[in-house]
């Protein structure tokens, strides 16, 4: 899973740098820049995220990527007390960006895909693969996170 997320972030960086001049332009409005971000960059990064079982480290990397792109869009803020320019804090970014953040989008897509899988029914192989338990001995160490367990956590919140 780490390799998949790493390659998605690399592809997202390539896409981000290809439209970087648009995101930092003073001619375009913030609304148009956020639409560009949500329609060109996010789909590249989030392709196939419905099946990801994220660790905290991977969640952090995705949030860092999203916040970095949003900081490029909204630019620095002038501090009225000191009179200096500074980067926006994460809370300020969340207030300015009206759409859900990258991690919230992943949760929404997982829930939507879970509903799709349930509607497919028991006869299809998808639900048996996602919910089923493999036979045989498991390796030493902590069990890996499974998709079904992660979905239960999402629905509890």
The portion of residues assigned to helices is: 55-70%
Shape: elongated
- Please tell me the overall pLDDT: 84
- DSSP strand content: under 5%
Strand order of the largest sheet: 1-2
What does the model show?
The structure is a single chain. With 157 residues, this protein is mainly alpha-helical. The protein has one domain (2-156). Helix content is 63%, strand content 3%. It has 8 helices and 2 strands, in the order ααααββαααα. The protein has helices at residues 2-18, 20-23, 30-45, 56-74, 90-96, 102-120, 125-131, 147-156; strands at 77-78, 85-86. It has a two-stranded antiparallel ribbon with strand order 1-2. α1 (2-18) runs parallel beside α4 and α3 (30-45) packs antiparallel against α4. The radius of gyration is 19 Å and the shape is elongated.
Task: Offer a few descriptive terms.
157 residues; mainly alpha; two-stranded antiparallel sheet; 8 helices; 2 strands; elongated
In short:
63% of the residues lie in helices and 3% in strands. The chain has helices at residues 2-18, 20-23, 30-45, 56-74, 90-96, 102-120, 125-131, 147-156, and strands at 77-78, 85-86.
